Amino acid sequence: MEYNVPFISDHASMLLTLASSRSNIKVPFKFFNVRANHEEFLKIVEEIWQQSHSTVKMKNIWVKLKYLRPVLKRLNHEECKFINQKIEKAGQELVITQENIHMKGNTKLLVKERELIQNLEKWSMVEESALQQKSKANWIKLRDSNTKFFSSLIKERTQRKQIIELTSLNNKKLSEPKEIKEEIVNFYKVLMGSASHTLPVVNKITMRKGPTILHQQRIRLCAEVTEQEIYECLSSIGNDKSPGVDGYCHNFFLLPPEGE
């Protein structure tokens, strides 16, 4: 926003520069919970999980998750592609079928109607679940669908995540993505400071004068973490929480293995 000189008027004009959102920003992978209901999902995960890439367990898991990302991303693209058209087409076919039932009702049309309703519910659930997870809004159970509500929230969140303009420490306005990125990195480098050659240690004598834990408490703290504890921690996380840096949310790790 800039103010021009008033010239011969007693009012100064104000200039607003509206920047359109950049469409070339790379969107990171994000696992959608609804994709776990896909008929091919467990089979895809099993094929990737049977591979071995390293003798180190954690590295092996990390590589498997890395190789699984593009496969799930492609599955998500194929399923969600033209989803609005699929819902509209399913709705139109259902209306035509129901009109035919009123005109000439028979068993075949009733079976077809049931199949079309299931198909419409399937694609509506996929759309609504994905939009809900993207917007991270609580589900509103007042009407059958809130896709417009979720879509507006997604647009708002997308705008908030973008940094269109930034003022540097030198009071210089930056608008190029590369300049903004460099300024942010340099800012935190200065904030964190340089590496220290020596670090002061805690005085054990002073620490022992304060509150201490019992021997039984020490044993509990040193005990190995059980699978049940991990499962309970994952289960306590809300479904609307953001995924980790790898794009997988906690629901992915709670899915049952093949055959269970």
From TrEMBL:
Q: Which domain of life is it from?
A: Eukaryota
Q: What is this protein called?
A: Uncharacterized protein LOC107771714
Q: Which organism is it from?
A: Nicotiana tabacum (Common tobacco)
> What taxonomic ancestry is recorded?
Eukaryota, Viridiplantae, Streptophyta, Embryophyta, Tracheophyta
Report the gene name. Answer: LOC107771714
